[in-house]
Design a protein that fits this description.
Helix content is 0%, strand content 55%. With 115 residues, the protein is an all-beta fold.
């Protein structure tokens, strides 16, 4: 029923920017929050950013000050603006939806930061 579709990943040079989008579809009336995690081979999946339905945001320490999460309730979409990208930001970025006591995951979008 619930589907999450991420977009916006790609190749960017260090210091550059990208904006990721995650659109939720299905029968969704309200949800507790949406966010982004990232995963790289050899590392644990880590929190990037999360935004609650009330607007409160949380960021992982490695991205705080560089990334910004925002949402569009009318479109059931969450965005991640990534600035000052570093090679260590290279990862698969996955969208998460917190809805009715369950977590739903997107398939991920690859971000590669390299010169």
């Amino acid at each position: 029923q619930v589907q999450l579709v991420e977009s916006g990943g790609g190749l960017v040079q260090p210091g550059g920017s990208l904006r990721l989008s995650c659109a939720a579809s299905g029968t969704i009336f309200s949800f507790n929050g949406m966010g982004w995690y990232r995963q790289t081979p050899g590392k644990e999946r880590e929190l990037v950013a999360h935004i609650a339905s009330g607007g409160n945001t949380v960021y992982g320490g490695s991205v705080k000050g560089r990334f910004t999460i925002s949402g569009d309730d009318a479109k059931n979409t969450v965005y991640l603006q990534m600035n000052s990208l570093k090679p260590e930001d290279t990862a698969v970025y996955l969208c998460i939806l917190n809805y009715r006591g369950a977590n739903y995951w997107g398939k991920g979008t690859l971000v590669t930061v390299s010169s």
